[in-house]
Amino acid sequence: xxxxxxxxxxxxxxxxxxxxxxxxxxxxxxxxxxxxxxxxxxxxxxxxxxxxxxxxxxxxxxxxxxxxxxxxxxxxxxxxxxxxxxxxxxxxxxxxxxxxxxxxxxxxxxxxxxxxxxxxxxxxxxxxxxxxxxxxxxxxxxxxxxxxxxxxxxxxxxxxxxxxxxxxxxxxxxxxxxxxxxxxxxxxxxxxxxxxxxxxxxxxxxxxxxxxxxxxxxxxxxxxxxxxxxxxxxxxxxxxxxxxxx
Length: 246
Ligand SMILES: NC(=O)c1ccc[n+]([C@@H]2O[C@H](COP(=O)([O-])OP(=O)(O)OC[C@H]3O[C@@H](n4cnc5c(N)ncnc54)[C@H](OP(=O)(O)O)[C@@H]3O)[C@@H](O)[C@H]2O)c1
Known about the structure:
This protein is globular. A seven-stranded parallel beta sheet has the order 2-1-3-4-5-9-12, with helices on both faces. The model has no long low-confidence stretch (mean pLDDT about 95). It is α/β, with parallel strands linked by helices. Helix content is about 35%, strand content about 20%. β1, α1 and β2 form a beta-alpha-beta unit. The N and C termini lie far apart (about 40 Å). The protein has a single domain, classed as Rossmann fold. It binds NADP nicotinamide-adenine-dinucleotide phosphate.
């Protein structure tokens, strides 16, 4: 198959490309460094020409309000170009439970991205992933002050990048679902506990204390980001991932 990955230099996009190529697919890679800009539209029709599937793994520069016009414009641009190119399957990487967090601009923006796909002219598959395991360590630094890391007890189900990339690759090579596939990790943990596990594996003198209002996840309802019934579950556990990185 011919598969265009947009956001190909990113954390997930680059790993998806490395998964698909050895499987024999013709994969083209696109981001601003290759002259493809979904905000301005530059290079987009050429990037999508002849693709059976387009995978959108791009990300906004931040979590704040500008994420809303960013995801709106880039998604509209991609859908128009995919429609002009003759349809195919647009696969979007999204996030579990975002419909339950309307007060956070970034999640509202991702939800609008999904709604544009659902209302648009092109067959699609949305892959909603739980938080990446690799995202947990950076989260601990957002609300660190001195030796204290403040984290809420919001429950998360972090997924290993390998498990997510397998699911994305399957979505990219299967017929469009015109629906959502959810993928989470094998275990659910309160975020404060995830923080403690992480700091136990990589001790740096910091300790976790519970603060239900701390950071981005302090704004997320307790169970909003748990993968829903019927979700695929990855096999890599967070403890095993931490040992692997130790
Ligand atoms: N973090 C999590 O736990 C989590 C969980 C579930 C889902 N997600 C979703 O996963 C997606 C991918 O995340 P990631 O961490 O892989 O992102 P990332 O590493 O920041 O990569 C973003 C990619 O988008 C490209 N890009 C940015 N602006 C662009 C533009 N205007 N036109 C074309 N390409 C552009 C970047 O390349 P250039 O800058 O060179 O253009 C880069 O290749 C995001 O949409 C995120 O919402 C994240």
